[in-house]
Every structure is written in C-alpha cells, then in structure tokens.
Amino acid sequence: MLGTERSAQIEARLAKDAYDTEAWQMLLAEAQNVGTEEQHRDAFDRFLEQFPTSGRHWALYVEFELRHGRTDLAEAIFARSLREVLSVDLWKSYLAYVQRNNEHGGNEGRQIVLKAFETALQYIGMDKDAGGIWSDYIAFIKAGETSSTYEEQQKMDATRRAYRRVIAIPVMNVEALWRDYDAFENGLSRMTAKKFLAEQSPIYMTARTAARELKQLSEPLQRGSLPCPPRWSDKEMSQLAAWRRYLDWEKSDPLKIEDAAARYARISFAYKQAMMVLRFYPEVWFQAASFALEHSRNEEAIQILKSAIDIMPHSFLVNFALAEIYEERKQVAEARALYEKFLDQLSDDIAKMNESMTAEIAAFEAQHQRGGNIDGGGGADMATSSTTDAFGETDGEEREEARRLRGYTLAAIVMMRFVRRAEGIKVARQVFSRTRKSPHITYHLFVASALMEYYCSKEAAIAGRVFELGLKSFSDPDYIREYLDYLIRTNDNNNARALFERTINMMPADRAQDVWRLFLDYTCDYEELTNAKEVEKRYLAAYPQGKQGSMILIIIINGY
Amino acid sequence: MLGTERSAQIEARLAKDAYDTEAWQMLLAEAQNVGTEEQHRDAFDRFLEQFPTSGRHWALYVEFELRHGRTDLAEAIFARSLREVLSVDLWKSYLAYVQRNNEHGGNEGRQIVLKAFETALQYIGMDKDAGGIWSDYIAFIKAGETSSTYEEQQKMDATRRAYRRVIAIPVMNVEALWRDYDAFENGLSRMTAKKFLAEQSPIYMTARTAARELKQLSEPLQRGSLPCPPRWSDKEMSQLAAWRRYLDWEKSDPLKIEDAAARYARISFAYKQAMMVLRFYPEVWFQAASFALEHSRNEEAIQILKSAIDIMPHSFLVNFALAEIYEERKQVAEARALYEKFLDQLSDDIAKMNESMTAEIAAFEAQHQRGGNIDGGGGADMATSSTTDAFGETDGEEREEARRLRGYTLAAIVMMRFVRRAEGIKVARQVFSRTRKSPHITYHLFVASALMEYYCSKEAAIAGRVFELGLKSFSDPDYIREYLDYLIRTNDNNNARALFERTINMMPADRAQDVWRLFLDYTCDYEELTNAKEVEKRYLAAYPQGKQGSMILIIIINGY
C-alpha cells in the first residue's frame, strides 16, 4: 500500500505471520518514513487492531495526530482507548493534553483538569508506575491560587487527602511521596504533624513493604511486549510463571485492605493487566472470570469470558466456562447457542484445514508432474526428495487433524451431557443422533453416549445398541477395548466373548494387544483354567515374541 | 570348631551372612591349614551343602580323600555328585580315577574304562569344554591293542564313530579334532578319506561356526562362581542377561539338529547349566520347566519345579507354576496341598519377622533404659541417635512387612480362585472365610472375593456384602476406592453416594484424593450440575491448594 519494495516485503511477512511483531514495527517505521499522513494513520489503525492493548502505541498515535493538528482525531483515539487500555503512558499523555487545553481556562479550566486527574487515578492510580501522576496531581492541587483562609484550608485538606490516598498504594516512588507528605504536614504544624504522621505511618509502612515486593515481582514481567498467541517457548512459560507469582501475591492481599470492594478492585486491576499482556492465554481469562464469580460479580465474569471467546474462539476452556455459567443460571438457550457456535467454529476449522491440505497435495502433485515432464531423471530425484518432505508434513498434519477431531468430539460430548442435564435424555439422544453423523466425530462420542445411557438412564440395552452402532463406523482397537470393558464390567460375558471373537482377528496385531490383555486378564481371573489356557495359547501364537512361558502366571505376578 | 581365633571370625561372618563366599573360601583354607583330617572333611561337607553345584569343589573334595587314601569316601563323593553336577572337571577327575584303578586290568579293565568314558560323554559330552574328554576317549580307543584284522577293523570303526560324534559338537577344540580326524581317514585311505570327509564336512562346518558363536556367548558367563541369592546388582543383572542370550541361542537350534530328542537334550543341557549357576533365579527354573512342558515332558517339568521350590520355597513363580500344572492334570489334592504349604511358609516367615522386630525393639528399649540410667544427658544423646537409626530401620521393616502381607494375600487369592475353579464357589467361600481371619491378610482378598462373586457366580448381593464386611477391618482409601468403583460400575449410585458420604471424612486428606477424584469424575460426567457443583465445592474446600477455579472444567479439559 505504501508502494515501496520494502513495504511489499513487510506485507509478505505479515501475510505469512500476522503476529510477526518485528514486521509490524517495520511497517510503522516505513509509513512514517515514506507514507502520506493518511497512510501513516492507516498503519497505526492496522497495528492497533492487531495489538489493541499496546498503550505505548496508542500514545504514539495520539502524538502523531496532535503533531498534525488533528485534535479531533486525537480526542477520538483517547475515547477509543483510555478506558480499555490500562496504560500509565497513555493517561499521562491524556492529562498533558487536558492541561495544555485548559492552561488559560481560569477556575473552570482548573476544575476540568482536576476532574481529569481524578478519572485517571480512578483507572490507573493503583498502577505501580502511577506515582508520577499522583505527584503531578498533588503539585497541581498545591499550585491552586487561593483568595481566602477558607479556600486555603480547603486546598490544604485536598492536598492531605491526596497524600493519604497515595501513601497507602505501593507505587514505586512511595518513599519520596511519604517524605513530601511529612514535609507538608510539618510545614503546617509540628504538633498536628506528629499526630497525623503517626496515624498514617503503619499504612505507609505496609505500602512501602509491598512496593519493595512488587518491584521484585514486576522485574521479570515484560509489560510492554506485544501479545501474541503462545508458542509455548521457555521464555513464554517463564513469563506465564512470573505473572502467576505476581497474581498470587496480589490475591494474598499484601496491603491488608479492609474494604472488600477496594480489595476486589485491586486484584481485579491486576487481572486486567495480566489479560492485556497474556491476551492469548485462556487460563488467565478463566481465572479472572473465576475470581469475579467467587465474588458474585457474575456479569463481570460473563463479560470477561465473552471477550476471551472473541479473542480465542477455539478455546475449550473459556467456551465451556461460559456455558457452565449460563447453565447454572438456567440460561439454557444461551448455553445451547454457545455450544452450537463453538462446534460450528471447530467444524469450520477442520473443513478449512482439509481444504488447505487438499490444495497442498494438488500443488505438490502438479509440481511433481511438471518436474517429471521437464527433465526426466533429475526431475524424478527432485520429486523423490519432495515426496519425503511432503509426506513428513502430511504426517504432522494428520496428527493435527486427529487432534482436532478429538477436540470436536469432546465439545460434542460436553454439549450432549449439558443437554441431558438441562433438557432431558430424549433431547440428548437427538443431539447424539444428529452429531454422530458429522464427519468429524471420533468413537469417543459413542462411548460417552453409551455410558450416559447406562449410568444416567440405566438403559443397559440402549447402551449396548449404541456401542454396537459405533462398531459400524469404528473398528479402532481402543473403541473395541472400551466396548469390551463395558461388557465385562456389566457381567455380560457371553457378549464379551462374542465381541472378542468377532473383532480380534480384524485388528492389526500391533494395536490389538490391549484388547487381548483385557480379555486375557478377565479370563485368567474369573473363568475356567481350560478357557484361560486356550486364550493364553492363542495370545502366545499371536505374539510369539512374548513366548516365555505362562502368560497367566506372568499376569498374576505382575499384579503382585 | 577349628578352635582358632581366625576360624571364630570366619564363623561369625557366616552366621551373619550364610552366602559370604569369601568367608567360605577362608573356612576351607583354614581347615586345610590347621584342621585335622576329619575337620577338613567336615569343612568340605558344610561348604558343599551350601554350594552343591560347585563341580570344582567336589573335585577338590575327591582329591582330598584320595590323598588320604580313602578311596571308599572318594567313590561315595563321586556317587553323590557326578550325575547332579554337570562338571567337566569332576568327570575328568572321575575318569582319571577309573583309568588309574584299571591300568592293569587287561581287557576287562579296558571295558570298564570305555564304559566310564561313554557314561561321562553321555552326561557331559555336549559341554563346550568336553573336547579334552573326547580327545582322551579317542586316544584311549586308538591305544587299544588288536590281535587280528577283524579287531583292527573294529577299532577303526570305533575310532571313526567317536570322531564323527565329536566333530558335530561345538566343543572348543573342534577344529583340532577335525584335523585329527582328517589325518586319521587319510592315514587309512586317501580314496575313502575324500568321500568320508566330504560327507562329514557340512556337519563339522556347522559345529565350527556354532563353536565360534558359543565361544563369544560364553565369554561373559562366570560358570565357576558360587551361586548366591540375587541382590539385583548390575553385575548380577548383566550375568542374567548374558545367560539369557546364551539360552536363546541354544533354543534357536544353531546346530540344526534333526533328531527331536537330541535337540531337546542339548537345550535341556543348557538349562541345567543355567540352573546350576543361576540357582536362585526362579525365572530360570520356570523357563526350564516351561520348555519341558512345551515338549510334553511333564514329569521332568514337575521335577524341575519341585527342585526349585526346595531351593526357593518363597518363590511365587515356581510355586504357582507347579500348582498350575497340578490343576491342569486335575491333581486337585496336590495343588491344594502345595498352596497350603506355600501359605504356611509365607505365614511362618511373617511371624518370624515380627518376632525378630519385637526382639529388636525390646533390645533397643532395654539399651535406652540402661543408657538413661547410667549417664543422663550423654545417654539421652546416644539414645536419640539410636532412636533415629532404629526408627529408620523400623520404617524399612514396616515396608518389608507390608510387602510380605501383600504377598501372602496374593497367594491366598490365587488359591481361592483355584479352589473355585476346581471345587466350586462354595468351597472357595470356605477358603475365603477361613483366610480372611488370618492376621496377615490385606484388603485385596476382600476385593478379589467380591469380584469373584460378581463375575463368577453373578451374585452382586453377596459381592456387596463382602465389600461391606471388608470395611469392618479396612478403612484404607485404596480399599474404599475399589468398593466405590464397584458400586459406580454396577450402577448402584445410591450406595455409591452413601459409601462416599460415610467414609470420606474418616480418611486422611492426603490419601483420600483418589476417592474424591473418582466420585467427582462420576458426578461431573453423569449427575446433575448442582450435584457436581456441590461435590466440587466440597472438594475445593478439602484441597484449597487446587483452588484455581472449576474442577469440573479441569476434569473435562484434562480428559481431552
């Protein structure tokens, strides 16, 4: 869009990886260097859509607009970001803007600035780095002109109030602020100073201790980094652990805040900061929501989980957590809709992945064809080496697909169980009947449905039919093992033996061993010796490498 | 007994460890140095009672008797040992003795010597180190005087037969023997030699290849070492592995022996050698017996296992293996008697161990008392340090005791199952009723009995009563988990919940977690959300460290 060769390279990188943070930084720099004002603005917008929690870049954007005299746009940016992005930098920039605008506004102007300070402190005053704003705020109060003793008294009260608020907060400069406060009180009256300072001292001491701990805890946190979906690198894991330590510390209430709402607000603020940086970690959102729920802030919990789902529509954790809240609140329709949407999302992803695999295979085959046509032998060599690569990747993709199918099925099972609880077994059976036809289902759905019939509706006969139905689509030894285990556990040994006999020879030997072992264990423990010996003999014929004598004895001894 | 200070030290070592091989060697040496003839004889007898498979020491013993002119005793030693101990040394010593005795016996004497050679080769001729005996044998045949062409012809035939037998065996000097044979045939007739050697050559080649492999396989085997109960050291494990490699090689039939009986004899010989050295490894005996069974040598298998039980009366493997053979042969009384004897053995061991623990504790307490009386503070210090030691040891002994009780119970379970198969459920119930009163029983007997009732006699009601009965003696969380699992699996959810409720608070929290998880999993998967949430809440109250939000979700996600 900027038209330069460099920008084309940058765009290519972003097309390949939408979270290539270096490329994003280059994009901003390139827009600044060669772009028009509009292009530069566009770059900011694109950047902040991708990284909406980066206060530093919001502040840069504001600065850019102000440099171009577009106060209207600067104000719009403030409106979009201030309340969402808990950034000291951004609020500082806002306060500077308000102060500049009201420099010559007289008393009315002063009131506007004071109001802005109050708002800022309300949003960001708890931040460990908000100490500068607090200093500015107090300085601004002190600088107020007074024309009467009453006004002077009022200013003094406001100053004292501000000091007392901040020396209870573990901001990094709390010690300097306490010295200022000390000087302030002593400047007024040595007598009252002694009393007041003695009163405030324990509060300040607690905050000072906390500030020291907080400094240590914050040191490893990279608050300024641009949030990206985790790749579970060591660095990411250690960031996550550092954040967890910090959150645990906040939850331990080191300031011993008496007021429950204030205590909640402080911990909630910590979670908000964590969610900004660890934007793509579902468990952080989940824990923030759980914390809200524990304090009966149900709406807040729902909002947190909704935001999390917007950001991470594939997350099982946050989707299930929200559905569970809906179910508890008897919002059956909402829960059902959420499950359906989640399943659709997973289904679409699988379809897209399959498409891209098909396309890749087609592309590979086309290339193979071409290679073969052009230069015979050499082409064949090339093709062979590509085949290996392509196959290696295909294996990985197949594993990925299996994982996705398993995930889809898990979601379907959770929904089916929810429907049974909320709408009864009949509706749950409908869900099962519909879902089982999906091409994305694994055998686990049949196991879950059968056991639901057995445990919840006590319908062993239906359970058996469900298992039997599953056998038409799935001959996976793991499925057969589950089915066999069910038959054994329900004492249906005729059917157990029948199932074993009609499936055991259909399974590849290297995957049938668990089924063999289950049946052999059962036979050895509970059937007649001739049966046991016969099964053992067949087992040893199927797995001659294990032929070291009696399996029965080996099972017994292993059991010991 | 020898009266020396040194011998007293040796006896003390042997009293402490009956398998202190170094002390045993010292005992023999001391008897030789300072003992009377009778004392030396006594030392040999004691030594060989402890190490009855040491051919070397049997040979030394014979030599000792011969040195003292006691041919009667020497012959008695040969009679005791030759057939049992497959020792080339011992047989060589015997052959030397026979030859010496018949040196001047004329033809009759020659026949005796020849017979002795034949017997020796029958027992030991397959040994890789028997090549010397074969050479001597051939030399002895060759040295025979002849007085007619007919006799000369006979001698030639006998020599040829002997050569042909040995060049088919992988003795270490088979190459030299082949060269001798080549010279022998060529010495008779170049014409027939060519034909005969061509005929025998493939057999010899196979033996030669096998001899080379055997040389390598035998290198790590310490055949001369005195067998001791294993302590599972690295050295012992690598010996075991080396023997296993050797046995596997023999079982692969590298000589491609056509005659089944001869093939069996050779492998059986390898097992016998292994059982001599790995005397205290039940699995070697078990495999030898299994090999015999596979070739329908049932009596031989029984004899092997009986010997193994004499040597290792505590071995589960060999006892169970023999009982299984009896059961298969419908020798119910023998099987029953064997199980009873095995249980008595285990029971006695536990009683003895308990006695020795009681004695130790008494000794410790007496010492403690004394220490306290004599020197107050210092004594208390001593006592404290002993306490730690004594307690440390007691812990180990308690673990050992638990292991023994578990073993006793396993044997009781195996017997109970055998009785059910062989004599029916009623007799099995009698066994259960009697056994459950033993002080050595663990809860596993109740689980086994209950599941036997459920699976074999389909008596769910009795199964429930058995579990309930067990609960009177056992509150082990593992037992409760088994019981709960049974109730859940049999869909008895009222009783499942009742069991959970009346036991969960009796269990120490650190051991109850499995019961909690089982019940929570079940509740989350199959019960109503309110139930699940309630159990979850109680779980989180019991285990606050896990309080990271919804357990239900964590179970679901973990399941994924």
pLDDT average of chain A, as an integer? 91
Largest sheet descriptor of chain A: none
Domains counted in the coordinates of chain A: how many? Answer: 4
3D shape of chain A? elongated
The DSSP helix count of chain A reads: 25
Can you walk me through this structure?
The structure is a homodimer of 560-residue chains. With 560 residues, chain A is an all-alpha fold. Chain A has 4 domains: 5-217, Tetratricopeptide repeat domain (Serine Threonine Protein Phosphatase 5, Tetratricopeptide repeat, Alpha Horseshoe); 234-329, Alpha Horseshoe (Serine Threonine Protein Phosphatase 5, Tetratricopeptide repeat), CATH 1.25.40.10; 330-474; 484-560, no CATH class. Chain A is built from 25 helices and no strands. Chain A has helices at residues 5-16, 21-34, 37-50, 55-67, 71-81, 88-101, 106-124, 131-142, 149-166, 174-188, 190-218, 234-251, 260-277, 282-294, 298-311, 316-328, 332-423, 425-435, 444-455, 460-473, 477-489, 493-503, 509-526, 529-542, 551-559. In chain A, helix 3 runs antiparallel to helix 4, helix 13 packs antiparallel against helix 14 (282-294) and helix 19 (444-455) packs antiparallel against helix 20 (460-473). The longest helix of chain A is centred in the last third of the chain and has 92 residues, at 332-423. The first copy, chain A, is elongated, with a radius of gyration of 33 Å. Chain A binds chain B through residues 286-287, 289-290, 316-317, 320-321, 324, 327-328, 406-407, 410, 414, 417, 421, 451-452, 454-456, 458, 488-491, 493, 522, 525-526, 528-529, 533, 548-550, 552-553, 556-557, 559-560, and chain B through 286-287, 289-290, 316-317, 320-321, 324, 327-328, 406-407, 410, 414, 417, 421, 451-452, 454-456, 458, 488-491, 493, 522, 525-526, 528-529, 533, 548-550, 552-553, 556-557, 559-560. Chains A, B: Pfam families: Suf.
